[in-house]
Every structure is written in structure tokens, then in C-alpha cells.
Design goal:
Four copies of one chain form a homotetramer. Chain A is of the alpha+beta class. Chain A has one domain: Chorismate synthase AroC (Chorismate synthase, AroC fold), CATH 3.60.150.10. Chain A has eleven helices and 18 strands. Chain A has a five-stranded antiparallel β-sheet with strand order 9-8-10-16-11. The first copy, chain A, has a four-stranded antiparallel β-sheet with strand order 1-2-7-4, covered by helices on one side. A three-stranded antiparallel β-sheet of chain A has the order 3-6-5, with no helix packed on it. In chain A, a hairpin with a 3-residue loop joins strand 12 and strand 13 (284-287). The first copy, chain A, is globular, with a radius of gyration of 22 Å. The first copy, chain A, starts with a strand and ends with a helix. Chains in contact: A-B, A-C, A-D, B-C, B-D, C-D. Chains A and B meet through helix 4, helix 5, helix 9, strand 11 and strand 12 of A and helix 4, helix 5, helix 9, strand 11 and strand 12 of B.
């Protein structure tokens, strides 16, 4: 059975919860490293007040003992540090009082799940939608991805990410080794390696905030150190690039995804798009370029996975949009619940997390095994087979 | 259990086979309309010789009786009309003879699954990879999508598609009602509504062919007539836009997907990205624009789904690329197996097919029901609920 | 997507966690009723000391607000009331000290997962297996089932269970209406309706305990008030009786399951096995008997589901069994970790819980819908269709 | 992704179709051995006329080339040799003529899916139900299982089955090595190893046929040569015994399943139920007995899997049962469509097939790998780990 997970929890509820099922035993977990991923999600120039309140940490309440997984499902909890202010509004039990006590929402915000979710689930308090559709849930996905990241690190697989553009300002392609990319972007409040671009992006974010508007951008994730042959061409739903596409577009506010040169491929002749195949005894099969972003036939080809996603500007706005009150059917201009002018740097971390999850899942599908020892032996087997091919 | 399907079959094997599981009973099938979809996939300026050989038709060998589904799994067969020339090469039983008799492939083509698939599956005859990874398989997916299309038509849901750009030539946005879009693009050999663009695209395709090169492009699919609330925001893998993204990127040669304004959202302020909410008694809730392509929170919002995918140029080339023989490890320039200069118009049909499948799946998840009668009653029921919300 | 759930947690860990995904919105939850199910699992003559320590309660930490589900995943926590004594032994972080501090287990108990799990997961501390394989996990499954039970109650579907036999003592078939069955068995410490049998069972349990041995038994679950047509005959994995069989055999210590007359069907002629079909205007189609336990063709036929499962004696023994120390490979006689002489009455509650879950899942697959209102309307639709058939 | 399959096809339709997804490459298939399994399903004393008409053979139309799998999905077709008589009745296209031409069925047979299926799917011609619910579909499952059987044979895993009882006549436990069991039961028209029992069973079947009645029985399947650790205790749906239970109960007419001593465990003290653990250098860990049928904690323990299923008498009867015409709502006595007095020996073959499928699925989940070479290396690797534990 494939690796799987479920998350639960609301943005103002007591906690986010995730259960990861299908991990091997004897995976050593570095809890600091895990929490560092949560911290990375909270950082980034352009975040609003709430990110300062909460210092997210993941508490493990199942599946790990004395620093290692046991093979049992791993349960993770990310507590809401602000929960004490919400115990009544978000109470699981019925409470006294009317709309005010419940902080009922009846004014759907354009660009959010509010209206669609209210209609679909027949909910007249749109808080019941927005509490779950909030990007707060991505903290759980980052925690889950952090476990996958540590798993893959055992096999020399590394994951980095960076911001490609914000609000139309595009950084030059970094072209850095993965370790240096990780280090350089970590030091940047907008997760770009180029200092000049960084300054321009920060200025644009500040201006946007001052204008009461918001901006989106494009982020890129790179996974290096991969074997040939994750994913499969034999059935559409086993193609790893397709699965990664689903994972990326499922991130809140993401509206597109591309692999390798992506949409640019529409403008180039075939002779400029593909990656020629080379062979040397030291490196085995490899490529002269990586335009296809590490995939052919839905399988990894040994080059780094390169995937980009686009995040739209956060729809929570100071510059209000027109909407309709669901009680009165009267027009109003949409209210503000939160206030990030730009969440693109954080989105880069979320995208890394969901991509690395899919890679770990495909990795375990290919190599099987129930303990780290067994997986490592299987992996060594396969690398030998590849070397001898 | 959700609607699901599997396909099997090789490009030069006897047939493609698909099994669709989870269809309701009493769906009237129009077999001509079904085969028309297969024909659409074969058309398009820029296709090579093979498309003329085969007039694909789908034969139904299970799940349908006297023109209607029975609720049982539907089995579809698309025969290979050229099979008689391949009975030995593709025989399921061992054959006499060496590499020539087997038409063994040992020279992997860049941009194809050949090398990765050969390594992953430990196959020294790369024909065993390319026969399955070939885009021929999309004929099965089109047949499957054609059933989904007919199912959704019962609920007034219509699917259209058109070519946005080929080799850098971009058509003006058609802005047509869905019926007119379907009609206009059907009449065009490159599936564009604009006559001037059509001519330019045809000329470019001809030139590319003459140059021995290939070109890709961008295609767009529109699904109109949708209810609010397909998909869900509550768990990442239930977001319908994410599922559509997977389906699109899983099409052979597709390298990216975007919803609504997609990557353009990275360059616009939040105040220019979202779709304001309006309400009138006749139309109920609706939107002033459709920048988000019919999705908020992973759910349909009642506006048409607008999704674009990018297809890279077909990697089969007259202009050869460098590769390595797996027997000798010596460099060579890659061989040609087929010769479409441009398959973008056909890819548009494939994309429609995989998108409409995901919509049908989400539709059945939401409305349940085992017979068309039951589903129609459930649907009417929900529309009433929406109207009264 | 179908209703699904995952559980996590160890018997001596801080908590059991469950996430339920796919519930509709607006399901009113009765928290007392939910906890009552957990209490039922803890009762029953023959339980050991531990059942008295813990008064299990389920805390909901997601998906429910002001007494109703929101459509979001429901997260449930059952805390371990004895956790304070285990914080070091079960610490997620590495601890100081050797085998004693860790309460390491190196002596596998026959009849448990210990040895197989230790080998599979390459774990030299068998505690890492037994903590998860413990029947403590069924508390989470009972909590999950309690939610399904409340969901189905909205449609008049009721679930009861009773003990058929313990250690060879068999109760007479109760032949009671479901409400009376529920009431009568609830009053019995061994969950039988017949007072004379009750006394004999209690005496046997006491004697078994005195002997340092353990006994198993057979339990029966009845689900009444069902519509015709849950499950489907069209594909093997959609047959509801098959799914129920999986759920039952997956309960710790269960070794078999039968539907209706079950194994007795092997001894009877066909003329004595099937249920004749009757029709009256008031009742519609119904049956003269219920030998097939509510199923034909993997679908409900409107008669109550009747399913029985067999639980082997709990392998934890005062009368020790021979085993082998994994460190020394030397024989020893197996150690005792817990001490229930008979857990059959509790197992009856667990079986009800897993059966009702499968019924709820099949119910939602058939009727679709995202809110209770929508499901109720769909259900009314279908009942009308059935009445008019 | 796990091994999966779908089947399609009707009993009087042109063919049964199956697609198997997830097989490794380079599995050598013995087509004669595959068809031998289909033949085994057709044999057995007590079968009616139809079994003689058809000599089922499986034709492979995808996924296999020159005698070996390629990793692509395997498509299997079992043609209906009697199809020429049914081309009109079972036409996929609408036909002229009324009920007679269509051989419409409006009289539901008790014990079949007819009435439930007709109501669920809103079908007034019950032929649309019975064509799919017919046990004919098990031919496809046997073909699928035959592939799994050949896969597992590569790892020394063998599958046998025998009839335990028919109509109340019980054979003595054979207690034979697996190879001898296979040989002996194959030679018996009722699949029992004991000659005296064989004669009694044959006489009973003949008498039952003469009486116009039918009988069922109990069959047992044994899987030998297994590694420790298939399946897992960590989540209920990964327990292999549970999955096997689903597979068995999903066979047409099966009403129960038990593992090892099964229901007998209810009558024995714990000290007589479990399997003591032994260790020798040659054999490693093994057991003094196999009462638990090869499973502890939902995982294999290295002992043979022993699973029994009960088949009710086939509901098609010469001795008619009362039913109700769906047109007139008038009572009638149920019609006869077919005439097997006893299908228990054939059911034994079907049960072997579905059990071996689940084992192969769990095997691939544990060992991963895409080619036979890779899986064999992984397996060797694990056996070494087990030996060193």
C-alpha cells in the first residue's frame, strides 16, 4: 500500500493533526530539523501579524519511539498558540449566543472557498468553510513533508526551492548547486539568491502593503540526487510528474504548475527542447541539459526534478472587492480577515513539502521495504543494476 | 467507490483495452458520437502517415446492452488496424529469430521513456517500453473520456477545446459561447477559431515539417454548465483543480497546466485577479469575471472551468539528437520512429477527454446514485437547494 | 471519494488519534453517546485490571463546531489516562539507559504480532511492535464507528450486537426486535439476552481466570433498517459483504466471519438456504426468512445484516507457552503483559463498530451528498424510486 | 501503487475482460499453465451442461511480448464460445422486438442479485443484473489469479486447495505436503484426497441432482513457502488476513471465511490455540503447530496460510422457490436458468485464485521492484536479514 496521509484541523481550532501511514521503521527523526521546516513556512517578507504570534512546532503523538519510527503510523500535532482566544467561537459543543458570539461569517470573500463551500455543504455560517480552507492547513502539509524530506536524505536526495518572481519582478536563474541554493535562499527574506532582485522584491512588497493590495509570484522546487525510474509510464495515474502537478495545484492559491522549461516548450522547436543522452563510465547515463525537468515518460531520468508553481495574490484585501451577503442578497464590499501582502516565500516552502512527499511515495513504491535497513539494501541493489545496465 | 478506469495495450499490439468501473445504469450511449471523438483525435494538420492508416473505432465488449449501460463495468476495445504487420514482432509467445525479427530497439530516443523505462524495468529491448509509452494510448483515454462526456451531457454540461498557440503563434482569445466555440474549432484543421491565425499556424507547421523539426503548443479546455461545488476544499486530494492538473500533466508530452489566468496571476495585483460575486434572482450567485477559471478552494464556483496545458514538440525528429546505444555505450544520433511535425490539435482533444473524466468522477462523488434516473433526481434536488441558499 | 479513516497511537503512548475523512456537514453529534460507545468497549465480565484504570473518552479536535460536523475531516483523540507512568519508556525522543529503562521486550509471545513484526520491521525491541498491535487500538475504531452509528441513525438504521458463545457455551438465538436486543444485551455483563446462559458464561470466565487460562467466543452484529442496494455485484471489491468480512477479520484476535447462516450453509440443500421473495403494498418487497443475512450479490436486500465473527482466546496467558528469546535464541516460556481472561463481550462492541463503518461508507457511496440535508433528500428520492419499482 | 485489477463482461456477452496493473517486467508466463487453471475451474463432478460447451482459454492482448511481461498492464480476454447464439439478446446496440427477442427477465430468483440489483440500478430487465452477477465472472478472476500464481512460483510459493466438505459430508484432514496435496486433489472429481469420502460426495451430488436440489460445501486453500512479514499490523486495512477474508467472501455464493482453526477457536482455551515458537539454526524461527493458519497480527508468520470458505448451494433450483413478478407483483415459483447441482470443487479453484492474488499483492507491497530481477534481489536480501535476525 502506498504512503498516505490525512490532515485535519481548523485555522482557529485547537490544533492541526496529521497521520502519516506507510513509513518504514528505524527512520531516525531530527525533531529540530522538522520544526525548522515549520519555521521556514512562517518566515518571509510580507507576512502579516499572525505569523508572529505563532511559533509552530510539531508534536509527535504516535509512531515514533526514542528518536526513531517504529513502522506504526506517525501522528503529528501542530498546536494553535492562539487557541485560548477562540475556545468559544470554535467550540465543538453548542454555545449560547448569536452571530456575534459565534463570529458568524455571512459575507463571502471573492477568491476564497467561502461561497462555494457554503453552498456545497449547506452552511449558513461561512466560518465553517473558511476555518478549514485557510492556508493554515499547509502547516500540517509542511510537517508531513518534513518527515518525507528526512526519509529521502538517507538516500542522498535533497530538496531546495526558491522564488522565481514576485509581482512581475523576476530573479535571474540561480544555476547553483543544490546545497548552495538551499543556503543562499535560506538567508534571503524573499527566498531569492540574487541580492539585487531581493531588494526590488522587498520594495514592491512594501509598496503593495502600503497600497492595501497583495501580490503573488512563481516558485521553483528542485529535487536532486534522484535515481532513474521513479514513477512509471505504464498507466496515467502512476506518472510521477502528473502526481506532482496535482500536489502543487492543490496548494492554496496555486493556479498552475510546470515541469522543466514548461510553457516555454510551446515556443521552441523540438530540436531545442529535449535532453541529449550521454554516457561515461563514472557517471553512467546522464544528460547534456535538463530542459524536461528530470522527467521523461512520467519517470525520473536521473536529472534533478525542476517544478514551478504559480501562486495568485492572496485574496484577502484591503482594497475591497464586490460581493453579496448571503442573508440579504445585498451587495457589499468584501471584508478583511487577514493581511499578508505577499506569501510567496512561504509558498515556496509549502511547495517543496508537497513535492518531496510525492517523491518519497514513489520511492517507497519502487523500492518496497519495511525498515530503513531493508530499503537501503534494496536501493543499493537497484543502483548496482543501473550501473550494470 | 469513485469512478475509475484502467487501460492496457501497445501501439503495435492487437488492440487497446479500457475498463471503466463505476458508471451508472441507463446511460444511453451514442456510438457514433463516441467514435467521432476518436476521429477528432486523429485529425489535425501536421499529423504523419500513421494517422491515415487507422480509422479508430471503439468496440464495446461489456457493460452495455441495447444501447444503454447496465451499471456493470464498460469494456472498450480500440483495435489496431495495422496489426497484421506486427503479429510476429509483437507476439505474446516467444518467437524465433534475433534482433531483426523482433525489431529490437537498443537506441534510446531523448525525450521519450525509452532509456528510463529500459533501466527501471530492466529491459534490453526498448521496444518493450516504447510500445506502451507511445501516445497511441491516448486513443483509449479519448474513448473513456467520450463516455464521460456523454454522461455529463445529460446534465447540460458541455466540453470544448481549442488551440491557444502553436510554435509561438498565439491565437486571439476566442470569447465565444461554448457551442459556437465547439463548432468553429471543429471546422479548423488546427482547432483555432480565428482564420488568420489558422493560416499562420498551418504555414508554420508545413515549414517545420520541411525543416525536419517539430513544434508544440498550448491548448485550452473549457467545461461549461457546471454546478457549484464539485471537488472539495477539505482535503488536498479532493481538490478538483489538483486532480485535473494531474490528469493533464499525465498526457504524453505535456509539461505544464494552468487554471484560469494561471501563470499570469504572478504579475497582477490581488485586486485584478479575483472574481467579484454578484447575485440576481434569475441567475442566482454568479461572477463578474472568470479569472480563476471556475475554481475557488478546489471547488467549482459555477463559472466554466478553463484549463490550459502545454505540449512540448514531439521528440521524434528528423533533426537527430545525440544519444547512446545501450549495447555498445557508443554515441549515435537518435533514430526516427514516427513523424508528426505537430500533434497539438490532437492533443487538444486528448486534454478535453481527461478533463471531462475528472469532472464526471467528481460529479458522481457529489451526487451519488446508481441509475441515471436516481442521479437526475439527486441533481435536481441539489439545484433546488442551491437556488434556495 | 469514499469515506476513509486512519488511526495512530500506541497502547502506552500519550493518545490514540483518528482522522475521519468524507463525512457530510451538519451531522449533529451527541458526545455523550459517542463516549458511551467507548465505555461499552471497556465493560464486560472477564476484563483485567487495566480496563478499570482508564475511562476512555474521545476528544474532538477538528471538523466539528457547535455540535455539528462542518464537512471537514473529524479528528478524534482518546487520551491514555495512564500516560504519566510511561513518558520515559514511550518517549519520542532518545532516552538514557538500557533495556530496563526502555522496558525492552526481547521475548516474543506466541499468538501476538511480536515476532513477525520484529522481523518484518527489523526491530530488536519488540515493544515497538506490541505497542501498536495491541487491541488498545480498537478504542479508536470504536470512536470512529460511533460517529458512523450516529450518522446512520438519521436514516433509521440501527446497530446491535450480542455474544453468541463463549468458550463453547452457546446462547439460544435471541430472535428479538433490534431495540429490545440492544437493551437486553446492554444490561448483561457478557452481552447475552438469555439469563441462564449469562450465568453459565460468567462461571466459565471465572473458572478460566482462576485456571490462568483464557477463552474466546463468537459475536454477532445486526444492522436493521437498511435500504435495498448498498454495495454492488458489478466488481468484486464493491461487494459490501466482502468489505464487512475484511473489517471483521482485521479486528485483533478475530479468525473468521460469516454472513447469515454462514458455515451452516455447507450442510443444507439449496431449497433450505434461500429467502423467498414476497410483496405487499405496505411493505413492498421483503423476504420470508433471512438465512442469507441481508445480502444477495454483495448487495443489501433490505433484510437486516447479520454477521458473526469469532475471536480466539487472548494470547496473553498465565499458562505460559513456549517461545524463543531473540537475543539468545534460547527457549523460554512466554511472559505475561496483560490479563483479560475473556474479552469477547468487548469484542462484540468492536465488531459492531467496524461493521457500521462499512455500512456508512457504502451508504455515502450510494447516496452521495455533502450535507445531511442533501443526503436526506437523496435518500427520500431513492426510497420513492424503490416504492414505485 | 499496489497491484490492482478490474474485470468486465457478461455471462452471455462476447467475452470477459480483465486488466492487471502493477506487474513487474520479465515475468515468464506459461500460457498452458494459465489455461490449465481455467480448465480446473470448469471441472468437478456436479457441473451442468454449460461447463461442457465452453473450453475457456485466456487470450493475452496487452502487456506480454515474446513470453514475458513488459511491466505494462496485462489485458486478458476469455471469449464466450457460445456467443454466436447471443448476439442479438446481448447486443450493445438497440434491437427490434419485445421481451421475447430480448429474453427479458422479470422474475427475480431468490438467492441471486436479481431483485436487489434491479431495484438499485433501476433496471426492469433483470437480465441486465444477472448477466454480470453470474459466477461466470469468476473465470476472469481465475485467469488473474493464474498470473499471480506464476509470479509467486518464482519465489517458491505454492498454492493448493481441496474440498473440506460437501452437503455435510466432511473429508478427513489431508495433512499432506503441498505438492502431494495438489497432485492428489487434482486427480479427484470432487477435489478431495480421501478416496472413501470422494465416493460418498459423488453419490450425494448425484442424488441431489436427481432430487432437483443443490448443495454447497466448505473449501480450503493453503499457501506454502511464504516469508515472515507479508501484511502489517499497523493499520487495519493492511492486515493480510482481513484482505483475504474480503477476497473470499466476495466470491459468488460464499457466505463465510475462517483462518486456521477459525470458528473452532471459540471453543478452546488459549493454551490450546496458539502456536509455540521454536528456533533451530537450519530452519530459523518456526512453529510447533499451525492453528492460527499462518497469521499473527495480520502478518504471515512463515507457516502456511490456511483459509477456508463456505459456499452456499447454488440458488438455481429445480425445486422452485417462491418469488414475485416485478411487472405484476404476483407470486410465482422461481424459474431455472442453469443447473449445477454442486459447484464446490470449482469454487475451490476460484478461492485459490483470489487468495493467491492477495498474497501476490502483499508480496509486491513488501518487496517493491519493477523487474523480476530486482524483486529477486530484494527478496534474497530480506531472507538474509531474516536469517540474521
Amino acid at each position: 500500500m502506498s504512503l498516505r496521509y490525512l490532515t485535519a484541523g481548523e485555522t482557529h481550532g485547537p490544533q492541526l493533526t496529521a497521520i502519516i501511514e506507510g513509513l518504514p521503521s528505524n527512520l531516525e527523526l531530527d525533531f529540530e530539523a522538522l520544526n525548522f521546516q515549520l519555521l521556514r513556512r512562517q518566515k518571509g517578507h510580507g507576512r502579516g501579524r499572525r505569523m508572529q504570534i505563532e511559533q509552530d512546532t510539531a508534536q509527535i503523538v504516535g509512531g515514533v519511539r526514542h528518536g526513531r519510527t517504529t513502522g506504526a503510523p506517525v501522528a503529528l500535532v501542530v498546536a494553535n498558540n492562539d487557541w485560548k482566544h477562540w475556545t468559544s467561537v470554535m467550540n465543538v459543543e453548542p454555545i449560547e449566543g448569536g452571530d456575534e458570539a459565534k463570529r458568524r461569517v455571512h459575507r463571502p470573500r471573492p477568491g476564497h472557498a467561502d461561497l462555494n463551500g457554503g453552498i456545497k455543504y449547506d452552511l449558513k455560517d461561512l466560518r465553517n468553510v473558511l476555518e478549514r480552507s485557510s492556508a493554515r492547513e499547509t502547516a500540517a502539509r509542511v510537517a508531513v513533508g518534513a518527515v518525507a524530506r528526512q526519509f529521502l536524505a538517507n538516500f542522498g536526495i535533497k530538496v531546495g526551492g526558491h522564488v522565481v518572481s514576485i509581482g512581475g519582478i523576476t530573479a535571474p536563474a540561480p544555476n547553483l548547486p543544490i546545497d548552495e541554493l538551499i543556503e543562499r535562499t535560506e538567508a534571503s527574506p524573499v527566498r531569492v539568491a540574487d541580492a539585487a532582485t531581493e531588494q526590488k522584491m522587498i520594495a514592491l512588497i512594501d509598496q503593495t502593503k502600503a497600497d492595501g493590495d497583495s501580490i503573488g509570484g512563481v516558485v521553483e522546487c528542485i529535487v536532486a540526487g534522484l535515481p532513474i525510474g521513479l514513477g512509471s509510464h505504464v498507466q496515467w495515474d502512476r506518472k510521477l510528474d502528473g502526481r506532482i502537478a496535482q500536489a502543487v495545484v492543490s496548494i492554496n492559491a496555486f493556479k498552475g504548475v510546470e515541469i522543466g522549461i514548461g510553457f516555454e516548450a510551446a515556443n521552441l522547436p523540438g530540436s531545442k527542447v529535449h535532453d541529449e543522452i550521454l554516457y561515461t563510465e563514472e557517471r553512467g547515463y546522464h544528460r547534456a541539459s535538463n530542459r524536461l525537468g528530470g522527467f521523461e515518460g512520467g519517470m525520473t531520468n536521473g536529472e534533478p526534478i525542476v517544478v514551478r508553481g504559480v501562486m495568485k495574490p492572496i485574496p484577502t484585501l484591503y482594497k475591497p472587492l464586490q460581493s453579496v451577503d448571503i442573508d440579504t442578497k445585498e451587495a457589499f464590499t468584501a471584508q478583511v480577515e487577514r493581511s499578508d501582502a505577499c506569501a510567496v516565500p512561504a509558498a515556496s516552502v509549502v511547495m517543496e513539502s508537497v513535492v518531496v512527499w510525492e517523491v518519497a511515495k514513489a520511492f517507497l513504491e519502487k523500492f518496497g521495504g519495511d525498515s530503513m535497513e531493508e530499503i537501503k539494501a534494496n536501493y543499493a541493489n537497484y543502483l548496482k543494476q543501473v550501473a550494470e545496465y
